[in-house]
Amino acid sequence: MKTLIAWFAAMCLLPLPLFAQAPEANHDVIPMDQEPHHHLALQNDFVKVFKVEVSPGDSIILHRHDQDTIAIAVGDQEVTIGIPGKPDVHQKNADAQVRLQRGGYVHSTRVDGKTPYHTVAVELLHPQTNFHNLCVEVLPSQPLNCPEVASKASAPFNSQPLLESKETRARLVRVLPHQSMPLVGFPASQLIVALDAASISVGPSKESVEALQPADFVWVDGGHRRVYQNQTEKETRFIQIIFAPAE
Predict the structure, then answer these.
(1) Percent of the chain at pLDDT above 90?
(2) pLDDT tens profile 39-58
(3) I need a labelling partner for 183 at 20 to 30 A (CA). Which of 22, 71, 203, 212 fits?
(4) What is the pLDDT of residues 152-182, one digit of tens each?
(5) Rounded mean pLDDT, 88-103
(6) Quick one: which of 160, 237, 143 has its CA closest to 195?
(7) What share of the chain is helix, strand, coil (3-state, %, to 5)?
(8) Can you give the pTM of this predicted structure?
(9) From 3.50.50.60, 3.30.70.420, 2.60.120.10, 3.10.340.11, which CATH number describes the 13-124 domain?
C-alpha cells in the first residue's frame, strides 16, 4: 500500500505537459488546408470545399481536421488509414459513400487500389450539434433515424436522406434518364456535388446551363432557383448538402 501511495504521489508531481502530450502533439500535425493533395476549390461563410485526387500507391500525408468534414467518395476506393497510436485500418469506400470526419480527427491515407482516389471534402465552418444517421449508417454503430419519405413510382427523381445535424443535412439524389430536378423550396443555401455527368442551370433560365462531371459541384444561395438536368440515357446521382439559415 505504501508503494502504491508513493507511486501515485510521484505521478501527481510530474509536469503537466506529460499528461497533455496528445492534444499538443495534434497541433504539430499540419491542418487539412496544408495537405498537398487537398486543393481548395470553394470557400464561403459556410464551407471550404476541397478536391482530393491521389494516384495509386501514393498517400495523403498525416494531417488534422480542425472542423467537422463531410467526405464524398467519387468512385470506389481501397485505402489504408493510419491513425497515430493505433493499428492501420484497411477499408473500402464505395462510390458515392459519405463519411463524417469529426473535428480533431488526425490521419493519413494510402491508396491501395489500382485506380486513383478521388474525394470531395466539405469542411463545415459552423459548429455542428447532434449529428445522427438518417437512412444510412454514416456514423458507425449509431442507430438509423430514417424518416418516411413518400415517393411516386413515376417521380423523375428520388432522394435518400443520409446524415443530419441541427445545422446541416446531407442526402443522395438519383435523377432518372432525361429528367430534371428543380433545386428550389429551401430558404437555406445548398451544395450540389455531382457523382455522374449531368448539367445544371446557372441562372433563372433553363437555357443557361453548365456541364457537370463527377466531383464537380455548384453552390446555390438560399432562395435562388436552379435546375439539375439529366440528359443522359442512364440514372445520374448527386449529393445534396443543405445548410440551415444563420440565426
Answers:
(1) 75
(2) 999 999 999 999 999 999 99
(3) 71
(4) 777 999 999 999 999 999 999 999 999 999 9
(5) 97
(6) 237
(7) 10, 45, 45
(8) 0.86
(9) 2.60.120.10
Q: Which residues have a Cβ under 8 Å from the Cβ of 139 and sit 6 or more positions away?
A: 100, 131, 132, 133, 163
Q: Which amino acid is at 190?
A: Q
- The total number of residues shown for the chain amounts to 247
For cell 441541427, what's the residue? Answer: 166
Which residues have a Cβ under 8 Å from the Cβ of 208 and sit 6 or more positions away?
201, 202
Residue 6 has pLDDT above 90, yes or no: no
- Specify which residues 16 forms β-bridges with: none
CA Rg, the chain, in Å?
A: 21
What secondary structure does DSSP assign to 99-156, as a single string?
EEE-TT-EEEEEE-SSS-EEEEEEEE-S-----EESSS--STTPPP-PPP----TT-S
